[in-house]
Amino acid sequence: NAGVMQNPRHLVRRRGQEARLRCSPMKGHSHVYWYRQLPEEGLKFMVYLQKENIIDESGMPKERFSAEFPKEGPSILRIQQVVRGDSAAYFCASSPSDTRALHFGNGTRLTVT
Amino acid sequence: KQEVTQIPAALSVPEGENLVLNCSFTDSAIYNLQWFRQDPGKGLTSLLLIQSSQREQTSGRLNASLDKSSGRSTLYIAASQPGDSATYLCAVHSGAGSYQLTFGKGTKLSVIP
To answer: CA–CA separation, B76 vs B46, rounded Å?
Structure first.
């Protein structure tokens, strides 16, 4: 049973470009969470999704960031017009329900030059 | 607002020692608490999950305890090994209506051969 799969592992973008981060949850998991880890900081919650629904996006910046979890395919975290401050590790996690243990992927490390 | 603190920030011990990592949280109304391990450049590996009704959980050489009333959890590692070297993260799920995990900044453990 494959774990949470994130790609790409590393992503380099220039300021102003778009970044698209993908996450495939574990088989049987319908709950997906995105977290961001800034250098020297703890992980911070960004957004919680179920299939075709955004349940809680209270941790997401109001501008430039969006997330989706379509009926088919992976969850996507999109960052438009990236800035240097977006450089971080972005982790996806999944669970079979909102009260069970979360399983994390290996993350996507975004570098904005 | 829930806040999670982990002490110490870094710890270095000789191989074979038993050690304790500490985690404290400000709001005792939690649903569960999870300990993770993070290796450099990697994702998070779930170690132990303690439900709010439980006092402790054990897995191999690891034992995690939870004292909800005092807002504390400890992770005990017996007979430490160099392979235990990693950053250990504590995360709190604050319960019904909140889907977020609140993370501490972690304790970076080095086990010296």
So the answer is: 15
